[in-house]
Design goal:
This protein is about 65% helix and about 10% strand. By secondary structure, it is mainly α. It folds into 2 domains: about 200 residues, Cation efflux protein transmembrane domain (Alpha-lytic protease prodomain-like, Up-down Bundle), CATH 1.20.1510.10; about 110 residues, Alpha-Beta Plaits (2-Layer Sandwich), CATH 3.30.70. Helix 1 packs antiparallel against helix 4.
């Protein structure tokens, strides 16, 4: 099974589970009339809607590139994650409103024990599927699937907090605890929604992933070949699960076309070994200049203009620079 199909399969399970859990939580709210459980149910509505949106985006992202979309359709995942983040934030705000109203007119609570048992079951199911979705999305570089998984995991933490609050409520009969618990976890929901929305906007705007850049540059520095005189103007753009990488590679000026092609293939294979096959690498080859000799450690070079002094360590700051390096 390919990564795109695997992502779609996992997302289908998430949508199905979201519908079932929403139904279960509505039953729990009907039995208890608890605004805290209503909080959990409302978030499950978001799970259903965002799950469907996520499934649609994964299907679109899996489409092959065409003349209108030469880089593929992967960016739809960022839009999907942005919608999900917005829905989560709106749900959190609505929960705060409902909790506030519960302080003014406290509801008559019903069968709390049944409510606690039902949402405890939903928490276990949520966490299991959330972990599965997140790990699959991380392995396949799918932001939409990672967002769905993280959402389900956070939903689990919210449910656990609600369970604790309802238990205290059943022991103390302090009705204000119901609304207070709802507000606390509504704020956590809003925080999660903001994080997902922030990451989606960063992807749409092609914001650089500093952690990914650091990891890749460090890996290239550790495995650089002696013929790679210099590396600069490195850029990484995410298109869903695909990483599009541009860079300039400086090679000895006397290399012929075949030798230059062999070196770019070597770099391509090296990156694919570490970061997977879903890589699009666009390498522009430059020829070395006289000032490059001080950075070049090719021992058998017969046209050297000056002695080798020291290797230029590749760091993120240096490799993303547009200029060739010199001492």
């Amino acid at each position: 099974m390919g990564t795109s199909q695997e992502n779609i399969t996992v997302q289908k399970f998430i949508v199905g589970i979201a519908v079932i859990l929403f139904t279960i939580k509505v039953v729990a709210w009907y039995l208890t009339q608890s605004v805290a459980i209503l909080t959990d149910a409302l978030e499950s509505i978001v799970n259903v809607v965002s799950g469907i949106i996520g499934l649609m985006s994964l299907k679109i992202a899996a489409r092959p590139r065409d003349r209108s979309h030469p880089y593929g359709h992967g960016k739809i995942e960022f839009i999907s994650a942005g919608i999900e983040g917005t829905l989560i934030t709106v749900a959190g705000l609505f929960i705060i409103y409902e909790a506030g109203m519960s302080f003014i007119e406290p509801p008559e609570l019903g069968q709390l024990n049944w409510g606690i048992a039902i949402i405890s079951f939903s928490a276990l199911v949520n966490y299991g599927f959330g972990t599965w979705a997140y790990r699959t999305g991380k392995r396949n570089n799918s932001l939409a699937l990672m967002a769905s998984g993280r959402h389900l995991q956070t939903d689990t933490y919210t449910t656990l907090g609600i369970i604790i609050g309802l238990f205290l409520l059943s022991v103390t009969d302090a009705l204000w605890l119901d609304g207070a618990v709802a507000i606390i976890f509504a704020l956590l929901i809003i925080r999660m929604g903001y994080k997902i929305l922030r990451r989606a906007i960063a992807g749409i705007m092609d914001e650089s992933d500093q952690q990914l850049l650091k990891e890749m540059v460090s890996y290239l520095q550790e495995n650089r070949h002696v013929n790679w005189v210099d590396l600069h103007n490195l850029r990484i753009v995410k298109y869903g699960s695909v990483l599009h990488i541009d860079c300039h590679l400086t090679l000895p000026w006397y290399f012929n076309i075949r030798q230059g092609h062999d070196e770019t293939d070597r770099l391509d294979e090296l990156i694919s070994e570490r970061f997977g096959s879903r890589i699009e690498l666009n390498i522009h080859t430059d020829y070395c200049q006289d000032y490059s000799c001080s950075l070049c450690d090719i021992k058998e070079c017969e046209v050297r203009k000056s002695p080798f002094k020291q290797e230029m360590e590749w760091t993120v700051e240096k490799v993303v620079s547009r200029e060739k390096h010199r001492l």
